[in-house]
Amino acid sequence: MTEQAIGLGVQNFNVAVYVAKAPSMPYFETLESVEPVINEQINTINQHCGNGWRKVFNVYAKVLFALPSEHYSFAKQADSWQAYRDKFLLQNNSKTALLFSAPIINGTNKNQLHIIAGRTHAKNLLQQGKLNAQFNWLDDEFAIDTTNNIIVCPYFDYRQLSNIKIARLSELVAKLKTSN
Phi, psi at residue 164, to the nearest 5°? Predict the structure, then answer.
């Protein structure tokens, strides 16, 4: 049986963010694939699952908006990260994914960027044998695997992944892109 990515967004992503747990809603208990966000699904998750998920979606949109524009066009699609979140994030044709499963690294697709939200999550994936990566830990919060286009960063929360750290993440992405 082949591994199956599970989460929100699209299978053919350019950027995927990996989090340890899905929102605690019945819909996600049976989710077995990657499905695009429809209608007001992000708002529904925010209402049912609280401020933590609101932060995840907001920070995700901010990260996409901060990525180097010579490599990614997310910031060109909307006037603000808020507008991007509301109109494009994780929707069909967005080239984005928020995954609750382990990364499936396809060595042939160098265009895919994998961002693991949280050092603990990354270390758990490694310990469980669900991730084959060679991380260069830059400090306590950031790690990079240039071979597989994987970056570990703080969890998607305003305090943990502040605007300054989002800028650092963007710099690491630029470094990855120029090393490929």
Answer: -65, -40
